[in-house]
Each structure stands twice: as structure tokens, then as C-alpha cells.
Design a protein that fits this description.
The chain is globular. Strand 2 and strand 3 form a beta hairpin. The chain has helices at 3-14, 41-48, 54-57, 71-79, 147-154, 175-178, 192-198, 213-216, 220-223, 225-234, 242-246, 253-266, and strands spanning 26-30, 35-36, 39-40, 50-51, 94-98, 114-118, 126-130, 139-141, 165-169, 173-174, 179-184, 203-205, 211-212, 239-240. It is built from twelve helices and 14 strands. It is α+β, with helices and mostly antiparallel strands and 272 residues long. Helix 10 (225-234) crosses helix 12.
Length: 272
């Protein structure tokens, strides 16, 4: 039995509840204009034909701990009972979220303004945990037993950026076979990002993330006043959006991550 099969079997033995709703999808989030080895991530996806994990790229919109013995490695070892301890980077799971609320911006915009919406068939080789694996979760799900995990998340009342169920996709995330659509922020319309995205397959648009500099400065306590000020300083014509923030990617990535959190939390244009 391969590592992914062992991981799914482990979670299946621990999961409870009814099956997944047929409308639920897993979303893999990323910032489309971030660079990997000097190449925009979308261009690399076009070249590779697949979505890569942090263990392969060294890039993440969460913590950067994907190395042997690092936090991400240890979390995976615990979650999957050592199934991936000796696995090559390309064979490790890909992290996303279950979009059980059906949001156009995806299941966890905390991790990027764009997302790949995976086809339903990938649910059979995906495991789920709540909360995020950084918190050493004890509640798990698989496609056949997922309703109780969703009910738990629905009742939790977390902050908008923390309101997600983590998904671990086992095996390759092949862009031609496993992806229904690439969903982008409208700030990228007519840009090189859209052009690259069209080479990957179907492109859709969510409602967008947009925040005025004035509104940014009203939330100094969310990630810290220095990050609200940084975001306001990056604004163009009085506002900030993912395209504008992406142009500042030469700055410290962790600082920009916190600015993105402000934009994602307070600038989501999706109704409700």
C-alpha cells in the first residue's frame, strides 16, 4: 500500500458521520504572481502541468517549515502515522481546504487570492482535519465520513480567515485531469496573469478583494499597526488589491502575508 493509501485508510478509521455533499469541492489557494526560483508560479504550473507542494517549491502562504525535521514534516508524521516520513518531496500531500460554504473566493482565501477548484473525483484520495494541522487536530474526515467534521466547523464561529477545514490531497494534482477551474481575482483581468491562466484551462473570476487605504488604517489591531501602515503605503490611487500587492513581492514575504490577511479579511467583495 502506498503512502497516500495508508494515509486515507488511517483517516477513514478515525472519521465519523455521513458522506460528503456532492457540491463540496477542495480548493488549493495561492498567489498567482509570486515567484518560484524567479519564475511566476502560474508560468511554472503551465510548464509542469501540476500543482506542487511547499516541500517542492519552498514557497508557502502559511508557515515555511517544510523540510526534514521541520514543523510541517513533524505534523505530517503525526497526522499520517509516519506514512510520508521517507517520501520524496513530489510525493507528499498538497494542502488546500474544503469549500463547504460554497464561497466564490474558495475555502481558505487566507492562503491566496487565487485557487484551483479540484474536480469531485479527487475527494476519494483526500483527507480532512479540523482545525488546521498546526493545531494538532483530533477530528478527521474522508469522503465517506465528512458530515460531522463540517457540522463542527459550521458551529465554531471562527474569524473569517480561520473558518476552513484543511484538506490534504494525496497523489499528484494534475492540472488537466484534476482541476475544474482556476479562479482569479478580477484585478488580474487583462494582465499577463490572465494570459498565463488561459494556458492552464478554464478560468473563472470571484467577486474580488479590494480595500481602501483609509479602511486599512481602521484595523491596526488585526495583524499590527505596522502592517496596516505598510498596506496603506502600497496602495495605488487610494486602494489595495491582489495585483497591487503582488507588485510588492520583492519585500519581506512574511510582512506581505500580514498585509494580505488584512486585505482578505476586510476587503472581500463577496456578498454575505
Amino acid at each position: 500500500m502506498e503512502a497516500g493509501e495508508r494515509a486515507v485508510a488511517r483517516f477513514a478509521a478515525l472519521a465519523t458521520g455521513g458522506p460528503a455533499d456532492p457540491s463540496w469541492r477542495v480548493t488549493l489557494h495561492f498567489h498567482p504572481d509570486r515567484l518560484v526560483d524567479g519564475v511566476p508560479i502560474l508560468e511554472r504550473m503551465v510548464r509542469d502541468g501540476r500543482y506542487r507542494s511547499q516541500f517542492e517549491t519552498g514557497v508557502s502562504n502559511g508557515g515555511l517549515t517544510a523540510d526534514p525535521g521541520g514543523d510541517r514534516w513533524r505534523w505530517e508524521s503525526r497526522l499520517f502515522a509516519g506514512a510520508y516520513d521517507e517520501a520524496a518531496p513530489e510525493h507528499r500531500p498538497k494542502y488546500g481546504s474544503l469549500n463547504f460554504r460554497g464561497r466564490k473566493a474558495g475555502g481558505s482565501p487566507r492562503f491566496g487570492s487565487a485557487h484551483l477548484r479540484l474536480a469531485r473525483h479527487t475527494l476519494s484520495r483526500t483527507t480532512f482535519s479540523y482545525p488546521d494541522s498546526v493545531f494538532e487536530p483530533t477530528s478527521f474526515g474522508v469522503e465517506a465520513h465528512l458530515s460531522e467534521l463540517v457540522a463542527m466547523a459550521e458551529a465554531d464561529g471562527k474569524d473569517l480567515l480561520d473558518d476552513y477545514i484543511e484538506a490534504q490531497v494525496h497523489g499528484e494534482a494534475d492540472l488537466a485531469r484534476d482541476v475544474e477551474a482556476l479562479v482569479l481575482d478580477p484585478s488580474y483581468r487583462g494582465t499577463e496573469i490572465e494570459a498565463a491562466a488561459r494556458n492552464l484551462g478554464p478560468v473563472e473570476w470571484h467577486e474580488g478583494f479590494r480595500l481602501t487605504a483609509e479602511e486599512l488604517l481602521r484595523h491596526p489591531g488585526y495583524r499590527g499597526p505596522e502592517f496596516a501602515a505598510l498596506g496603506a503605503g502600497l496602495a495605488e490611487e487610494g486602494h489595495l488589491d491582489p495585483r497591487i500587492l503582488g507588485k510588492a513581492a520583492v519585500r519581506d514575504e512574511q510582512d506581505l502575508k500580514r498585509v494580505w490577511h488584512l486585505l482578505a479579511r476586510f476587503g472581500n467583495q463577496e456578498p454575505g
